[in-house]
Amino acid sequence: MGRRSRFNRGWRPWVLLPVLPMVLLGQSHIKANLREPEAILVLGGAAEREHFAAELAMQHPDLEVWVSSGTNPEYAQWLFQEANIPPDRVHLDYRAVDTVTNFTTLVTDLKAEGVESVYLVTSDYHMRRASIIAQVVLGRYDITFKPVPVPSDHGSAEPLLRGLRDGARAVLWVFTGQTGSSLGQRLSKS
């Protein structure tokens, strides 16, 4: 009687810790499938992303378009005007300096507008990294996203390590309000 079997040693809730991220990711995927996107979020870096977003905006005439650090303002305004997207539907923002700040500079604006779900537009090879960051940054404000990859000739997806690095930067932002981008800029100048 003095010895307990190895299955009867008592409840240890810490054993569920590895499962918690999967539960949270599952919950956000369910929400993303239940919520219709209310805006289009375009990550700058390639003009074809904005072209693709203009086509998507024509298919969804009620959605506003948010472009983070895309092409120059004159070209972007012309592009959306050519697609007959009214200027009041298009928000051009140039505060971001990298993929993490594409999200961190706009997430509070999206939330202030009452947006709870977005179409996330970026190149196909960039989508994995963007999705990792979006999960953290947009998820912090309970904003879900549906990935809409733009086909490219780039080939394979970016390395997973790059996505994990930027995912860690996104977590840093959640806890500190800092993305680490200024550190990267200082190191590149050295």
UniProtKB/TrEMBL annotation:
Checking PANTHER family in the record gives: DUF218 DOMAIN-CONTAINING PROTEIN, INNER MEMBRANE PROTEIN, PROBABLE PERMEASE
Q: Which CDD domains match?
A: YdcF-like
Query: Which Pfam families does the record match to this protein?
Result: DUF218
Q: Which Gene3D superfamilies match?
A: HUPs
This protein's superkingdom? Answer: Bacteria
Q: Give all residue intervals belonging to the DUF218 domain.
A: 38-156
- Entry's Gene Ontology cellular component terms: plasma membrane
Q: What is the official name of this protein in its record? A: YdcF family protein
InterPro entries in the record: Cell_Envelope_Assoc (IPR051599), DUF218 (IPR003848), Rossmann-like_a/b/a_fold (IPR014729)
> Which segments does the entry list as coiled coil?
none
